[in-house]
Amino acid sequence: MARISGVNIPTGKPVSIALTYIHGIGRTTASQVCAKLAIPPERRVNQLTEDEIVRIREAIDSAYTVEGDLRRETAMNIKRLMDMACYRGLRHRKSLPVRGQRTHTNARTRKGPAKPIAGKKK
Which of 36, 38, 30 is nearest to 13 (CA)? Predict the structure, then answer.
């Protein structure tokens, strides 16, 4: 099993799909990595040589922010907004939608399950 950036990538899948199991790498980035290293994206991970896996690992480590570093950077950006007490930071702090979505109805993912209000029923 190939291990890249601390993630065991699945062996039976094509390289371009398997690389998306790494946080911070999507389909486009995975295709770019394959093209840059001249690895056919449809080749399965278990068909890669050890040299190709090392080349993929080095290319990702040198050019992209992935996994723990990316998660830490995102968390720090959100914390910075909250510390500044700007509008977006306040929305994060209150667990409400940050990007202007309506909250009168919907927004249940962000707000959590609906809470019943006592005395509301008629």
Answer: 30
